[in-house]
Amino acid sequence: MNKKQTRLFAVASTGIAVLVLLVLTVDTHRQFPALTNSQNITESVIRGQNVWHAKNCINCHTMLGEGAYYAPDLTKITQHRGTPYLTAFLKDPSQFYDEQKHRRLMPQQDLTDENIADLIAFMDWVSKVDNQGWPPRPILVTGGSIPGTDLSVAQQADRSASGASGELPPGARPVASGNDPIALGEALFSSVTPTCNACHSTAPGVNLAGPTLAGLSTRAQVTIASPEYKGKAKTVEEFIQESIVEPSAYLHPGAMYSAGGTSFMPTTYGKDLTPEQIAHLVAYLASFK
């Protein structure tokens, strides 16, 4: 190439690059309303965004991949936890996590009921933004880290208990691949929306947003036989199914699991899952003796 050809090449390639950038920019802005569901930005959502900024939530949390990676990512938090849980949590975080045990404790923000409702509305709007799969995975913080790993204490215990080290949860039997209902239920446990393992551990004594499922089958038998139980289940399998589709039929003891007679567990599984999928989940959970 001579100097003239080099100059023409540089000018042409720069012009093409600028044109491509302009086209992509225009196309991105064209898609913004659909990607962000801008029609759902209500006054409550706007007020909630103001609360988010006023309380500097991003100093600890991430949202859409932005923020400080000290506390859990909140991009999909309303789908993982639900409004009742988040309302109770924001009113008094100390009822849910202990600083000595979990090492990290969200400070009391002294939010009004309106502040809380608006903040949840904002986070719910964010959860429905088409973020093109970003961040690539939820960032879960449930306790202090295990030295030499990037896992929290609860996550490490859960991995060990659920078979990451070749061991099974106490009382659970080995599962086969293919059409084995327990294996299919185990797959659903970490793939349904919201995922069961976002709130429940399978390790003994590791309680997250929901109680541990270790020993669930044995506990279910005791619960059904107790006078405090007012549900309709007669067997362990019926009790587990009832807990999935009607979580408020029996309220597990503990202020962090329910409030005002309503369980914090989402009530959507009965509508979102087929009877066959629920049966698979029941089979898997009933294997925890």
Describe this structure in words.
This protein has 289 residues and is mostly helical. The protein has three domains: 1-36; 40-141, Orthogonal Bundle (Cytochrome Bc1 Complex, Chain D, domain 2), CATH 1.10.760.10; 153-285, Orthogonal Bundle (Cytochrome Bc1 Complex, Chain D, domain 2). 46% of the residues lie in helices and 3% in strands. The protein is built from twelve helices and four strands; from the N terminus they run H-H-E-E-H-H-H-H-H-H-H-H-E-E-H-H. The protein has helices at residues 3-36, 43-54, 77-81, 83-91, 99-102, 113-127, 153-161, 181-189, 216-225, 236-245, 269-272, 275-285, and strands at 62-63, 66-67, 258-259, 262-263. Strands 1-2 form a two-stranded antiparallel sheet. Strands 3-4 form a two-stranded antiparallel sheet. Mean pLDDT is 82; it is low at 141-177. It comes from Pollutimonas nitritireducens. Pfam families: Cytochrom_C. Keywords: Electron transport, Heme, Iron, Metal-binding, Transport. One of its GO terms (molecular function) is electron transfer activity. This is Cytochrome C.
In one word, what is the shape? elongated
CATH class value of the largest domain: Mainly Alpha
Helix proportion range? 40-55%
- Seen as an oligomer or otherwise, the chain set is single chain
Task: Briefly note the structural class of the backbone.
Answer: mainly alpha
Q: Could you list the spans in which at least 5 consecutive residues all have pLDDT below 50?
A: 141-177
Q: What strand order characterises the main sheet?
A: 1-2
- Rg: 24 Å
| Whole-number count of domains | 3
CATH architecture classification of the largest domain: Orthogonal Bundle
The fourth-level CATH homologous superfamily of the largest domain is Cytochrome c-like domain
The total beta strand count reads: 4
Region (Disordered): 154-179
Domain Cytochrome c: 43-127, 180-289
Biased composition (Polar residues): 154-163
GO molecular function, one term: electron transfer activity
